[in-house]
Inverse folding.
């Protein structure tokens, strides 16, 4: 095998073999990552229905339910929600509406709840709770 000659058939065969082996290894590694068995999650649709039912219970289930959860009546709750939505400080996202964002914020303040507790209560991740808490806090500060 002559390494200085690029037309050497033995050199071409060796390079082709090395490239083939590398391609096979990379393909196997990629497939191994896709076949990992993790914790099975329930469908997102079910979680979304639970979230909607939870918000419905908070805001409309009884005269004192909203007061117990958010420390204000549902009529008082819709005022700030409409203000934050109308002035453009907050808007509905693909995953969470303004009312739920504000409810998370008020629940955390009203109950001195930790991020983890609020995540369990609203069926959201800790990152989502933190993100929307900070968004609502910024929106309320921008109203002044």
């Amino acid at each position: 095998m002559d390494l200085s000659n690029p037309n050497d058939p033995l050199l071409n065969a060796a390079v082709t073999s090395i490239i083939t082996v590398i391609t096979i290894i990379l393909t196997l590694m990629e497939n191994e990552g896709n076949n990992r068995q993790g914790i099975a999650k329930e469908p997102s649709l079910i979680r979304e229905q639970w979230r909607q039912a939870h918000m419905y219970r908070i805001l409309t289930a009884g005269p004192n339910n909203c007061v117990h959860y958010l420390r204000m009546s549902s009529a008082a709750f819709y005022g700030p929600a409409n203000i934050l939505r109308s002035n453009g400080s907050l808007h509905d996202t693909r995953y969470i509406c303004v009312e739920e964002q504000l409810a998370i914020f008020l629940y955390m303040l009203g109950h001195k709840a930790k991020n983890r507790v609020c995540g369990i209560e609203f069926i959201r991740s800790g990152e989502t709770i933190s993100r929307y808490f900070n968004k609502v806090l910024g929106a309320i500060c921008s109203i002044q």
User: Anything to note?
Assistant: The CA atoms of residues 46 and 62 lie 24 Å apart.
